[in-house]
User: What shape does this take?
Amino acid sequence: MVGILKNIRRKLVAGLVTIAPIAITIYIIVFLYNFFEKPTSKFLNKFFDIHIPGLGFIITLILLIFLGFLVTNILGRKLLQLGELILKRIPIANTIYTTAKQITQALAGSTTRAFQKAILFEYPRKDLWTLAFVTGESTDKEGCEYYHLFIPTTPNPTSGFMLIVEKIQTKNTHLSVEEAMKIIISGGMLAPPKNEIPPKSSK
Assistant: This one.
C-alpha cells in the first residue's frame, strides 16, 4: 500500500511539473492580453460605441510601438529623462520605478549588451564557484592580464559588485550572456544539469 501511494505521489509530481510551465505561460499571456485590452476597449466603448474583441489590444500595441519610436529619438529621451527626474523626487514611487526598470531591462536583455561573456571563478573562497560577467580587460605593469568582472545578485541581477581578477584564475564557460543571466535570475533553477566546474585534480 505504501509503495502504491509513493508511486501515485511521483506520478502526481511529474504531472504538476509538466503542466505548471504550460499553465504559467497561458496565465501570463491571458494577463497581458487583458491588461492591454481592457483599458482601451472601455475607452472605445464609452466614447465611440465600438465593440470589437481584440481591437483594444491591437491599438495598445500600436501605441506602444509609437512610444518606442518616441523614446528612441532625442526629444523623446529628454521627455523621458524629465519624467524620471520627477519620479525620483517622490520617495515611494522612486523605489518602485527604479526596481521595476532594472528588472525589466535585465529581462529584456538591454543590460546584458555591456557584458562580453560569462565566466566562472572561485569566490568567495576556494572550492566555491561564482558565475560572473566580463565587462572589460586590463594589464598590470608586468603584463599580467586581468578581467574586470561584474558579479550580479539573485534574483535582481542589476545589483552586484565589481572585481578585478587575473585571467588565469577564471574558467571560461560555453554559456551565452543571456543563458547565464537566466540562471542567475532563477536562482540556479534554470541551470544545465552538468556544470563546467573543473575537477579538483586538474587545478
Observations:
- The chain is about 50% helix and 15% strand.
- The chain has two domains: 2-108, 112-197.
